[in-house]
Design a protein that fits this description.
Two copies of one chain form a homodimer. With 420 residues, the first copy, chain A, is an alpha/beta fold. Helix content of chain A is 36%, strand content 21%. Chain A has 15 helices and 19 strands. Chains A and B meet through strand 1, helix 1, strand 3, strand 4 and strand 5 of A and strand 1, helix 1, strand 3, strand 4 and strand 5 of B.
């Protein structure tokens, strides 16, 4: 029986085939995401992976609606697996915004879903690190959020040689559009053209822009000039104060596809341009109001960072560590009359917080030792009786080959020393 | 806009309403689950939350089929959200069993789904700690798994006063059934009667048993006697060697509803009998073969522990810690000319691994201090200039009220000391 197309199984390392997805790498990424979000004072939240379809159809713009993984449930409800987290966040905030001090900084690590009929082989789910700041209009919030993106990527070992944040602004593009007397009804369509500029031929873009009464030349000149607005300059200064200037540049190519963005937008890219965006985000000051039906009006901004592109990048830059069971000890049981005493030792070591494994059934001594090595155990442990008949533990450090014999009651202390 | 019935939002603590679900409590539970599984040498895996419907319908027995959250997708496929993890695990193992040394010990923390039409207000999803041992027929594996259940519950502060593992065996019931010349075709139906014994009236059970040619009296006598089979005795002895006897008892009431169980089965219950089962599991030696269409034949056993009952129990026993942002420092910015220097300090502290927050925008000094207290920050930090014009950091421990002034470059070290 096969799994569904576009979905992933995650296997423990070492992987029997290199093209399998690693559960350890996934957890490594989750841990880094969670840890950096917390360091920045962000607090975790989550919502259901399923939502009423209308939560997504009315707010996110055409870009996302055609890709929804939606269906009708047994209760005849129109449902969608969540394609993004922001509408759920807006819904949750609208319900309890008075219960939290503003501005609040929240994060989540949701699995997101999409269903595209045409593109075979493409994934239909991924995990995404989402962080948002709610209730703060000042660009200081944008800077804080961008700093989090930068520090998160740095925590994986990526440097300013590897990635850059392309900083842009819908406000700047709006001003550009209005100065040229663009038709307000065409504004979102114009953003879509800018969004696709780098992926389409100049001819195709030129033609589309002409329909909107604009020329590719003036659009290109505006991008080329790349002059920071006052708002963007404030953000650049803030990031400079943190020593993060090398990680950001103004780039008006970026405008973000989703309809709900309102101000500053940004994307993180690898410097070599080999991969799709590593992360992207921006302001969506009107979304909470929209989702709450006008009840709650709060400025907001956030970003999403997916696990798939990040993992590709980390692999390409050889930045993934080796994953194993991280065994502190493997208990060798060579004398079956000592199995009960060995189980007690294993129990005590685990109770002390150590990662310990052993052969569940009687096994040849050399096979047990080989297994300890395969599992990359830091130590082997063996229960023995000394001449006085007392139970002793022989602890052998597999790296230094150093061997110590201590009373079983002191084995945990001994293991702690070799660990330190 | 409302979320779907039966689904949960998870909010950060402190919760604005006590009936909300806590994202912090959920993560606390996940961390304990993951940590204990690793200590036992179990390795993490995961599969998709969606699977082809047939993965569940043909293998799990009627108990689960009626409750599936299933639907037809855009590609006309019959899909189900996973109601349990074991079929996915069996599918994954069947695909790559040769790539892993046997026996292997795997765990997952999946979100599981069900759809019951009638019972309103009941949850349609929960999270479950799943741990399985694959490729070992010896009862030593059953004991290892049960020890993991016990130690996991103990890691939350629960003791033998709070819970007990009720140990039972389908083999024992099978023998009982065969000795009384039960109709083999009625065997699974008989197990279902036993499974419901504690929830139905004696009259109803008596009647059903009569149809199967058995009497409630002989069934009750068998349960009452509670004599351990040789297999169960081996498990009890193994657990006794670990010092865990107080946590287990033979109880033949337990038989587990799912069709695929084959041997030893068990459930964890609170001693007072206030809650539903905290965890349950057992052997399913034939399932991998079934799922793989006969290709792979491996004995297996596992358990599931849900987050909902566990959380209820921990709340009832007052065993949940208080959750907060765990701030190491809150940076006070009272002089706006020092904001840039403060941002640099915050950046350096976060880079050193500390959890640090601050007011994004200019805020009255007393309000900033109040916020630091609300967030239960361990310290406040303030950048100042000394008489020589050098940037200093004033670090104040909010518990001891002790205040130190150090060069900004030494603030991280100082914070580390107050932490240790």
């Amino acid at each position: 029986m096969e799994r569904l197309p576009g979905f992933r199984d995650f296997y423990p390392e070492p992987l029997p085939q290199p093209d399998l997805w690693s559960a350890d790498a996934r957890q490594y990424i989750f841990d880094k995401w969670r840890s950096m979000a917390r360091r920045y004072g962000f607090r975790e939240y989550d919502g259901p992976p399923l939502e009423p379809l209308e939560l997504f159809t009315t707010k996110s713009g055409e870009e996302i609606v055609g890709q929804l993984y939606n269906f009708i449930d047994k209760g005849e409800r129109a449902i969608s697996l969540r394609p993004e987290m922001t509408p759920t966040l807006a819904r949750m905030i609208a319900a309890y915004e008075r219960g939290y001090k503003k501005p609040f900084k929240w994060f989540a690590l949701p699995q997101l879903f999409r269903y595209e009929r045409q593109q075979k082989g493409r994934l239909r789910e991924h995990f995404q690190f989402n962080a948002d700041i709610i209730g703060e209009r000042d660009p200081a919030a944008d800077a804080e959020l961008i700093a989090l993106v930068i520090d998160t990527l740095r925590s994986f070992g990526l440097t300013e040689q590897d990635f850059v944040i392309r900083l842009s602004s819908r406000n700047a593009w709006q001003e550009f559009f209005q100065q040229r007397q663009g038709d307000p009804a065409q504004e979102y369509a114009f953003y879509q053209i800018i969004d696709k500029l780098e992926r389409e031929t100049p001819e195709a873009s030129e033609q589309k822009l002409k329909l909107a009464g604009l020329s590719l030349a003036e659009v290109s000149a505006f991008i080329e000039q790349g002059k920071a607005t006052a708002e963007l300059q404030t953000i650049l200064d803030n990031l400079a104060a943190r020593g993060l200037s090398e990680y950001v540049k103004i780039d008006y190519h970026v405008i973000r596809g989703l309809a709900y963005y309102t101000g500053v937008v940004f994307e993180a890219f690898d410097r070599k341009g080999e991969f799709r965006a590593i992360a992207g985000g921006g302001r969506y000051d009107n979304l909470v109001k929209l989702i709450s039906g006008g009840k709650v009006d709060l400025p907001a901004l956030g970003f999403g960072m997916g696990d798939v592109v990040l993992l590709e990048l980390l692999k390409a830059r050889a930045l993934l560590p080796r994953f194993d069971a991280a065994l502190d000890g493997y208990c060798l049981i060579e004398d079956e009359t000592l199995r009960a005493a060995s189980l007690k030792l294993i129990q005590d070591l685990r109770a002390a917080g150590f990662v310990v494994d052993y052969s569940l059934t009687p096994t040849k001594s050399d096979k047990q030792f080989k297994r300890a090595q395969e599992l990359k155990a830091a130590n082997t442990l063996k229960v023995e009786r000394n001449l006085a008949g007392e139970l002793m533990a022989k602890v052998k450090n597999l790296k230094t080959r150093q061997e110590t014999v201590v009373p079983v009651s002191e084995a945990a202390t001994r293991l702690g020393e070799t660990k330190g």
